[in-house]
Amino acid sequence: MRTLRDRLDLYLYGRTGIFILGCYAYEGFNLKNIIMNKPKVGFYNLSGCSGCLLTILNCENQLLDVFNGAEVVSFLMAQSNNVEKELDIAFIDGSVTTDEQEEFLHELRPRTKKVVCLGSCSCYGGVQAMENEKGTWLKRFNKVYGKKPFKVVKPFESKPVDAFIPVDYYLPGCPIDADQFLYNYARLLRGLPADVPKTPVCLECKWHENECLLLKDKLCLGPVTSAGCKAKCPSHNLPCIGCFGPADESNLTSEFSLLKEKGYTFPEIERKLRLFGGVKFIKQFKSLWKKAQK
Asked: pTM (2 decimals)?
């Protein structure tokens, strides 16, 4: 077999089944374009445990593909030579809790074609937002940090990324699912939109042939939680706690009525939903509670 040496033009027949990460699936490929014109990608973390970015780094068998499929210009947890410039895709992990992070987002958005939220912190505010809208943030903050003012940054109540800038795609989870990330990462590099489940966890429970935990009178949030976790908790006889956030196709009214019939009080249900559900979910639930009391 003769090597091509300096020739960087390669023609792949349609039925070869060869796929080059980051390239469109047409027959002719110019290797020079593949090498020189990789999508520019950045990974950023705000306030949170950085578990979603760690999930990416733990994809040991696929990590070379993640870095070879794109030009990763910024990834503080993975490399030291980070450069801030024009991006094709920015992946953001963590919620926004300071004015410095807010300024960073406003600086990042104009130079980025696509913004993707990684994990429930950036999508919904995270666990650190579970007490939002109670009017107790300053009291809680002073209890932990004292009343001495911060001179470097101005902290505020935890908020999701889309409270400050437009977001194109959301990959929820606490942490994200590695397979879901790799699948959508490859799609985004090829110019395709992200593809995340719109159905609730209940569907994945059916696929795994799990017995419904609601029938066992457990406070399970599967009917109102977005799928994508492979129903890991219910598969181990543990009720869903909603770590993938609210599902697009869910019946919150029925879930509320069912849990009420099983004897759960509003504070018990609210506490569960607040853990990952975000303020918007809580507002919807409170309106249902008011209607139920009339």
From this structure: 0.84
